[in-house]
Amino acid sequence: MNPSEVFEIIEKHTKMMDDSIPLIASENLTSLAVRRCYVSDFGHRYAEGRVGERFYEGCKYIDEIEELALDLTKRIFEAQHANVQPISGVIANIAAFFAITNVGDTIMSISVPCGGHISHDTVSAAGLRGLNVTHYPFDNEAVNIDVDETAKIAREVRPKLFVLGSSLILFRQPVKEIREIADEIGAYVMYDASHVLGLVAGKAFQNPLKEGADVMTGSTHKTFFGPQRAIIVSKEELAEKIDRAVFPGVVSNHHLNTLAGYVVAAMEIIEFGQDYAKQVVRNAKKLAEELYNLGYRVLGEEHGFTETHQVAVDVSDYGGGEKVAKKLEEVGIILNKNLLPWDPIDRSANPSGIRIGVQEITRLGMGEDEMGRLAELIDMTVRERKSFDAIRKEVKEFRRPFRRIKYSFDEREAYRFPELR
Predict the structure, then answer these.
(1) What is the pLDDT of residues 68-110, one digit of tens each?
(2) Residue 156 falls within a domain, yes or no?
């Protein structure tokens, strides 16, 4: 056995991504400042419990970091309470479900084909909690929840919790309207903001808490360009339930090196987040328009295509999402196949659609001027207008100028890195 084998594989992966156009909607890049935290001594330590109430000694500086994380999170999202200990979005959702529901309760959530995350359904976190799941009625053309039909169903099934937020999310969701229905039947409202957290933070999208959600969860590595972990923010009256559900409920030690990285990312969001979030949405809209003009069926046409980082395209005429995603991967355009609202759940192996996210290429410095060329490269590949080898060369050339991470402290040299030991 030789560890050099591992580093060689990592190097190959890194080279592949450096020469590719990354369009996975659930990924992003962290700055060098954030990455430096990963390899600090924090990665070796434990800090079970809350700030000032740890079960281990040696945590006084860890407490300072977590206190910073809590303060920054409440400031960014204008929240009464925050918990920064969940180590993934699904863990955050499990904690929220355990905090505000009981086994056998009914919840309403968006189905997976309509964009809902698996953790909102019986196959994952909701099922683990023992919840009954009723899906929202969905308007396929608007790519959003049908509020009037939801009200009718809610009065019949009387859910304990309404879950909002999606994995495929193009538009603002009806938080205020769902809040009114919830008040009528005595239910909670939870918004999973994993995909749009950075857009919420950058004030380029709805703030679910301000529109009436009781709880907002979110992973911190999609549009929020931090390390892979999660947060929960909520109303103050749910603080104790949320905190107990997280620890000792579903988290023990909470990966302190990435917690420190989250603090740095939160500082970057405060400094650069508004400019970044606005550019992300502009880029997504422009790419959607360019693909539409090339003859593709882009979802949400009548509503401006998108208000987020995502673009969804029906590619069933070109062999389906699996075939198209594999073609694009072959030339270095990395995205994923995706179920669309009209797809049956058993079509997940080759759904109708592809999902495109522009958050990572935006952080690499791409703007609207690059979206037309990107659309051309996608079209050239899907319709096989050139050999894949030729397109691959064009993709590498297109990516070449975009190597440095923007919207970060890396460009300032206004801080110092400690020596590693």
Answers:
(1) 999 999 999 999 999 999 999 999 999 999 999 999 999 999 9
(2) yes
